[in-house]
Write a structure and sequence with these properties.
Order of helices and strands of chain A: HHHH
Radius of gyration of chain B: 17 Å
CATH superfamily of chain B: Gcn5-related N-acetyltransferase (GNAT)
Number of helices of chain A: 4
CATH topology of chain A: Non-ribosomal Peptide Synthetase Peptidyl Carrier Protein, Chain A
Strand order of the largest sheet of chain B: 1-2-3-4-5-7-6
CATH class of chain B: Alpha Beta
Strand content of chain A: under 5%
Number of domains of chain B: 1
Oligomer: heterodimer
Number of domains of chain A: 1
Number of helices of chain B: 7
Order of helices and strands of chain B: EHHHEEHHEHEHEE
CATH architecture of chain A: Orthogonal Bundle
Chain lengths: 80, 213
């Protein structure tokens, strides 16, 4: 899967979880950049991403992700 | 005469830490938010907390390394969990990674459907402050200034820290009075007017207190 396709699907996951139809994600964005990104929505987001891409993150992989760019790279790695 | 001693928590303290986390979450009520938000029994919550503590990951309330223990006669009498909140490794992310990893998917779906209202009471941790998160003094050891002893030890452990913060349900007047006696001042509060929130949390208002060192 190309990065562009990953970003499109990831953005759709973000829009669904945060219920924001115009939300645009960028690689450097973190939980501090989206108002509704709290503990509960973070769990829902990870679960939604796992379902969307049919992957399962390991705990150490989750703790390695510091921003959306890390998330894109990890998804890309796991899709190969 | 026996005296209290302060030491770092270890994996041998896990049962005490689980009780501390659960009692602190209940805030003097019968409502355990991890049960109500995720539709789990208290024994399921206990086992989930045990699994998360055993992961031994630093930086949140499910980290053994966050806790100091006050010990009396070789038995734990009280504990406080604390860490310095940083922008590049926010505790809310570490905590939700652990929770999300151990919670069954069905419980997340339940939370998405039923419990989103609880987000209304979330107050972010104060950046660069020493956040005191879980405070628990066992019955029989209360009123002995263990809060002060444990907090002083956390400050000593984190030399250079300039500010302390703590959050508490607004109806926990005993705790708020104890914190104010130590020098904390109320900084902000968050309230939810929708009575539905009382299905999930012990009270509908939370207070953030801070103390500058």
């Amino acid at each position: 899967m190309q990065e562009r396709e990953i970003v499109e699907k990831l953005e759709a996951s973000f829009r669904k979880v945060f219920n924001m139809n115009t939300l645009e994600i960028m690689r450097e964005m973190t939980a501090n950049d989206i108002d509704k990104w709290d503990s509960l929505t973070h769990m829902l987001l990870i679960s939604e991403i796992e379902d969307t891409f049919e992957i399962r993150f390991k705990l150490k992989e989750l703790n390695r992700m510091k921003n959306i760019g890390d998330m894109i790279d990890l998804i890309s790695e796991k899709m190969q | 005469m026996q005296e209290y001693t302060i030491r770092e928590a270890t994996l041998h303290d896990i049962d005490f830490l689980i009780t501390a986390i659960i009692e602190a979450e209940k805030s003097g009520s019968d409502i355990l938010s991890y049960s109500t938000v995720f539709n789990l029994s208290e024994s399921e919550v206990r086992e989930m907390i045990r699994s998360m503590l055993l992961e031994d990951i630093d930086g949140c309330e499910f980290s053994v390394s966050s806790y100091l223990i006050a010990e009396f006669n070789h038995e734990p009498a009280g504990t406080i969990g604390a860490w310095i909140e940083t922008a590049d490794s926010p505790s809310k992310t570490i905590k939700s990674n652990l929770l999300g990893y151990y919670l069954p998917k069905a419980t997340l779906a339940y939370a998405a459907r039923e419990s989103m209202i609880t987000s209304e009471l979330i107050i972010e941790h104060v950046q660069d402050a020493l956040s005191l998160v879980i405070v628990y003094i066992a019955p029989g050891h209360r009123g002995k200034n263990l809060f002060g002893m444990l907090t002083n030890a956390h400050i000593h452990r984190n030399s250079g820290v300039r500010e302390l913060s703590i959050q508490v349900m607004a109806n926990n007047e005993f705790a708020i009075h104890s914190y104010e006696r130590y020098g904390f001042k109320k900084f902000m509060n968050r309230k939810c007017e929708n009575p539905e929130i009382l299905r999930f949390l012990p009270f509908n208002e939370k207070v953030l207190l801070k103390k500058t060192l």
